[in-house]
């Protein structure tokens, strides 16, 4: 099998002329490495005689990925290795300011997405594109694979009234696009309109999963340690909109889910009644070391993916929230604290990009009816995205 060749490899190889004699800002994090050498893109750019790296921008969790939990801001700082200024775009600043781009001609973006709308990196990219439009800069996006393949699409489409930092555009929960394809769609279909260049990959096919590319997996954020976590993330990220644990603080984030008040045997049995494809629910106990219920024993389930090609993560996540809500009406709570800079809206609504799903759960609407309701908008998205698919 031929290994997938990344956009960053092509940019620093045959397409180097794109950034020669240009002042470059790099948007990167710890996963921005070249697979042959495992060298970080910022180090390569800084040491390359034909690249003038002037500025670094970091997304959520910082450029080294050391900030453990989401919703913890990262300060601006000077990179110890290169001595360059690193501006955090997950802080009081989420869109580069003009003074941050004074010494910049091109903004090069090399970030690994997880294939789910509810992940901030693609919106950091969008914010950089908006800044480039305002201040006359060019954006170069180095494409990387969608680790949960580029075919399967699922979930409701975000409504404009619920746009947020985990949903700036009308996208479904699982979009089935690469970060480069999303950049094209953001720029044209959603109207950002910056000067944009996509550096494509080679040897990537839409049906590929991340572990079929021949590429090493470097965790893009602290709780996504492998491709399997990307597979389940669009399901159990919904629990972040509740007061249930999604497994942060354990060795199986997003696979272990529950709360101290849950009877794991009863919850697992109830979930099995849905006969959801490609998944098994195993009753489990776990004790997080940090985040929700730190130091407390939780009852819940561990998700086991039995066939990822038929697994439907989004409706699975909704089923988990729905059953917990119905089984524990006196104990279940929607998340009480703000979520991703949204202080007024219900956090579960922010994650879903709509209040319809929460209201359907509260009103006892059947699971298949919930899923049926998002199909018309999902089909419209499939049609809209078609012109932006590069592979």
What is this structure, in a nutshell?
By secondary structure, the protein is α/β, with parallel strands linked by helices. It is 26% helix and 16% strand.
Folded structure, characterized:
- By secondary structure, this protein is of the alpha/beta class.
- The chain folds into 2 domains: 7-218, Uncharacterised protein PF07075, DUF1343 (Rossmann fold, 3-Layer(aba) Sandwich), CATH 3.40.50; 227-354, Aspartate Aminotransferase, domain 1.
- The chain contains 11 helices and 14 strands.
- The strands form 4 sheets. It has a 7-stranded mixed beta sheet, with helices on both faces. Strands 12-14-13 form a 3-stranded antiparallel beta sheet. It has a two-stranded antiparallel ribbon with strand order 2-3.
- Strand 2 (33-34) and strand 3 (39-40) form a beta hairpin.
- It is globular.
- The model has no long low-confidence stretch (mean pLDDT 95).
Name of the level-1 CATH class of the largest domain: Alpha Beta
Rough outline:
globular
Query: Helical region count?
Result: 11
What name goes with the CATH superfamily of the largest domain? Uncharacterised protein PF07075, DUF1343
What's the CATH topology name of the largest domain? Rossmann fold
Number of domains: 2
- Strand order, largest beta sheet: 5-6-4-1-7-8-11
Judged by helices, strands and strand pairing, the structural class is alpha/beta
CATH architecture of the largest domain: 3-Layer(aba) Sandwich
Total DSSP E strands: 14
**Measured on Cα atoms, how large is the radius of gyration?**
21 Å
Rounded mean pLDDT is: 95
The sequence of SSEs as H and E is: HEEEHEEEEHEEEHEHEHEEHHHHH
Beta-strand percentage?
15-25%
Helix content, binned percent: 25-40%
Q: What does the main sheet amount to?
A: 7 strands, mixed
Distance between the termini: 17 Å
Low-confidence stretches: none
